[in-house]
Amino acid sequence: MPLASNTGTKPLLYNLTLDELKNWLVESGEKAFRAQQIFDWLYVKRVASIDDMSNLPKDLRQKLNEQFRIDSLKEITRQVSQDGTIKFLFQLVDGHAIETVIMRHNYGNSVCVTTQVGCRIGCTFCASTLGGLKRNLDAGEIVAQVLMAQRSLDEQGERASHVVVMGIGEPFENFDNLLAFLNIINDNRGLNIGARHITVSTSGIVPKIYEFADKGLQINLAISLHAPNSELRSKLMPINRGFPLPKLMEACRYYIEKTGRRISFEYGLFGGQNDQPEHAEELAELIGDMLCHVNLIPVNYVPERDYVRTPRNEIFRFKRILEEKGINVTIRREHGSDIAAACGQLRAQHAKETAG
């Protein structure tokens, strides 16, 4: 059966995995093989209308139109950075706005997707939490972000090769829709985004880290860490009070042991807060025995927040201390520094403008 919609409208056809689409077809008195044809229209030819699926019988197209929709996202605006980063603000069918970003790397084009309208995690440095959580996205609304990005890349003869689930919201608080989304974009009969080219980032929902590990997926896991001790992490990320750092580290070790896969720790550097040499020493002590990688993030300035960027020489000092302790570490390359690059910033601007 079609997955329920969070919008009170017809569910998106993008909500369905290939197997779910086959089941729906059989239950509707249709042939299961039509599922592959529909998948091809959606994700390879990337049509914008069910009526364009010309090799389907007319009565099947009518059934699909009666049961589903594929008009999920409307582009409100896009910002294009000098470095090629493209940030989209999309309007959902219920009027809410979300962000999606295309980032260009030397290894390909990465699409950063949003999983919730707003966020309730409350990280003190993040624009996404401004205004709180409105609702979860359907799986299809997350899939549609990749499709919209790919259509933009199609115009330049390019392909989305990587997906990062690091946009607005906490993915593990929308777990079932997240898993369906991952299944759909990974399917080699559709968008065919390789599992090892997909990264999911969580602020540290400990029970879901265990559950994710047990799924046995080859998808990369990133943890938004941002502090080397519980006291500081609770100040930056209130979620640490519910899932304290020692419990989070236990879950990370379980994930590594269960999957054999490396974890990435995202560590935003906030001037004078968590970027001193003693913090680097403490971080190395915390994760030194783990199969992991640290991604240092020079923070984007958010007007609504008080944090400032760590000076460049101090960023490299922090990196050097970690490397001397044997930690694999990189500094995240900045994307879109000349546009509203911080996650949630463009949406927050739009909310102000429409409210005013």
From TrEMBL:
The keyword Coiled coil does not apply. One of its GO terms (biological process) is rRNA base methylation. It catalyses: adenosine(37) in tRNA + 2 reduced [2Fe-2S]-[ferredoxin] + 2 S-adenosyl-L-methionine = 2-methyladenosine(37) in tRNA + 5'-deoxyadenosine + L-methionine + 2 oxidized [2Fe-2S]-[ferredoxin] + S-adenosyl-L-homocysteine; adenosine(2503) in 23S rRNA + 2 reduced [2Fe-2S]-[ferredoxin] + 2 S-adenosyl-L-methionine = 2-methyladenosine(2503) in 23S rRNA + 5'-deoxyadenosine + L-methionine + 2 oxidized [2Fe-2S]-[ferredoxin] + S-adenosyl-L-homocysteine. It comes from Brevibacillus fulvus. It is an enzyme of class 2 (transferase). It is found in: Cytoplasm. This is Probable dual-specificity RNA methyltransferase RlmN. Reaction proceeds by a ping-pong mechanism involving intermediate methylation of a conserved cysteine residue. The gene is rlmN. Keywords: 4Fe-4S, Cytoplasm, Disulfide bond, Iron, Iron-sulfur, Metal-binding, Methyltransferase, rRNA processing, S-adenosyl-L-methionine, Transferase, tRNA processing. The active site is at E99 (proton acceptor), C343 (s-methylcysteine intermediate).
